[in-house]
Amino acid sequence: MILRYHIRFTSSQDSRRYRTQWHRPKNNSLFSSHFKDCSRNEQFFVECLVAKGAFGVVFKVFNRCKDNPSNKTSYALKVIPKSKVIADNSVQQIKDEADIQKLCGHHPFIVKQIDLWQNRHNLHILSEYVPNGELFHKIDQFSPDLVRLYIGEIALAIDFLHNAGIIFRDIKPENILLTQKYHIKLTDFGLSKWLKLGASTHTICGTFKYMAPEILCGEPYGHAVDWWALGVIVCQMLTKKDPNVRSYLRSRDGSSQKDCMSNAPSIAQINGYLLDKDSNDFLPEAVQGLPSEEQDVLRRLLVVDPRQRIRSVMALQRIAIFKGYKLETKRLMSISPLDIIVKDGIRIYESSQYEQCYSDLADKPFSSFSYFTS
User: Fold this and answer.
1) Where does the Protein kinase domain lie (predicted)?
2) What is the CA radius of gyration of the chain?
3) 135-343 maps to which CATH number?
4) Cβ pair 235, 178 in contact under 8 A
5) Residue 81 pLDDT more than 70?
């Protein structure tokens, strides 16, 4: 089902007046260094809602080609209310998000940014549309060959960002999309930050389930937190369970646990996101039944001490699971994930029902956004 929304615009005279400097709304000036004062909304139809987040929503849209109506190119359009950005004091963060995606979008495993613009109420980020959606919405069973490929692709994207002086801070399955050919692409740079290799930061952010121990304990942290998050995803792919970090937080420093958590979310807050079972080993019991090379990659990524954790593709290349396997972008792009999926009898979930549900929900966010005003 295609939802056709028609966007209201001012007259050409009003439009010219709106672009005149002394009629520019004050909040437009806040973002004008990155988001141009124009609207491309009339060029697109909204097909469905793709995702809702803390800052805004993402829609699947396609262009309206007057010369060739049958030619429909799909895009992902992220719509962010300025009021939310300003209220959360996140103006610089949204500019960093735009800059980082623009700089890094040429990488094969990162979603490419197409355009940026603003109107009176909203910011718009137009990106390439990645058709097969979120990783675990499409696949929930992973063979060793598919795990190896996806670890490599995610690792290459992370390593590229780190070498560019960027920490991602929100590696999770919802931000890992599958292309038409089932390669991966990282998306959503809303929590990303410019950070030189070797430097540290201290803001507590991310998704609890994928946050490294140093973040949860309120300690300064660096790029190693992204490798921890990759380890959690690998653990989920191999065992369908999460690491029990809660047991580590309870046992750390014995009676001084309270001091460890003084600047971090409370155990009660984390309780709903991490496993409840106490264990001396925070890895799931199912890990014991995995082949030695799969256990090895988990124990090298999910190391509590970030200094001992794998923190580069070069280090990853040296471990057993990648013996005789070249972790190079060109090499991995030449491998067909679909061939692996077919060979190993992996089920792919159809997304039609999921997309229909989100199409039906698209009315609500549009009615709550001042999306159709100039």
Assistant:
1) 44-322
2) 22
3) 1.10.510.10
4) no
5) yes
